[in-house]
Design a protein that fits this description.
The protein is α+β, with helices and mostly antiparallel strands. Helices cover 57% and strands 10% of the residues.
């Protein structure tokens, strides 16, 4: 049973059925890979639709998506491996075993941003407009992908006795928490938070189409970054497996930094009433972006 809603009227117990969807001889289909693939397909389709609504060629999104996948997934894995290097240095063959889990969304965002910047420069298009079209798909993909942590019994929170909780098998528990059975379902917290951010971005997008109000180029991506980071700072504090830099949780540090930059960017747009710089060719992004 995956979810038992009979535990309490207002509670539920999550129990993972395991990481494997099906085995077909030597072929193993895992939930983690299936969810990532689904997130990519749904995200590309959504961004193409949003591009059409903004009178942008959807083929541009198709081409960009190839760049993003090629850059983001390896970058997400590399980011994770670097902060778990003592473990992977002992088992280097596991570095490429991404299907077993172990990717970091901040690594994916960094890799994807670099790829989008290069793509925008080569195609002479607005970098910030591309990020606006991708932002809703990105947060929706994160909401979907977090369920991979559920099936892998990973990225869970501290022990809890709350009505909503996640059962973790003993072989997946930290050694110092092996006597606890139930933990915060942080995958669920982040998935739900991401869905709320997605709803916010989509609402802003369609209200902007009706000019209520018109959004400046780069707004959706900055709102995405601020809103996602806000939730991640809170949720990361509950987790037991954070990537660490000394005594500091890397995800919280990056999120706080990103949130600060995002808020500054929004202030630049709406308080100082300036446009974001054209990071591709120099000049004014607002002026060069199509309506």
């Amino acid at each position: 049973m995956i979810v038992d809603f009979s535990v309490l009227p207002l509670g539920f117990l999550f129990t993972s059925p395991g990481p494997i969807v099906v085995k077909l001889g030597p072929i193993v289909i895992r939930w983690y890979g299936l969810l990532i693939a689904s997130a990519v397909l749904i995200g590309v389709s959504l961004s193409q639709y949003l591009a059409k609504r903004r009178h942008v060629n959807p083929d541009l999104i198709s081409d960009l998506s190839i760049w993003l996948v090629i850059a983001a997934i390896p970058a997400a894995r590399l980011y994770y491996v670097l902060f778990q290097w003592p473990e992977y240095s002992q088992h280097p063959e596991r570095i490429i075993a991404i299907w077993q889990g172990g990717i970091a969304i901040h690594g994916a965002i960094i890799g994807g941003a670099i790829a989008a910047l290069i793509f925008a420069r080569l195609n002479k298009v607005s970098f910030w407009q591309l990020t606006d079209l991708v932002a809703p798909s990105l947060i929706l993909g994160q909401a979907i992908g977090r369920w991979g942590n559920f099936f892998n019994s990973e990225a869970f929170g501290r022990p809890t006795s709350l009505p909503w909780k996640l059962y973790i098998p003993s072989d997946r528990r930290p050694l110092d928490l092996v006597n606890f059975e139930y933990f915060h379902p942080t995958f669920l917290y982040e998935s739900l938070w991401n869905l709320m951010v997605f709803a916010l971005l989509i609402t802003l997008f369609f209200r902007a189409l009706a000019k209520k109000p018109r959004l400046k180029v780069g707004t959706l991506f900055l709102v995405y970054w601020v809103a996602y980071s806000l939730g991640r700072v809170w949720i990361e504090g509950l987790r037991t497996d954070s990537l660490m830099l000394g005594p500091l949780r890397m995800a919280q540090m990056v999120s706080l930094g990103g949130m600060t930059l995002g808020l500054f960017g929004l202030a630049w747009l709406y308080i100082f009433k300036r446009s974001l710089p054209d990071v591709v060719a120099g000049g004014n992004e607002e002026k060069n972006a199509p309506e």
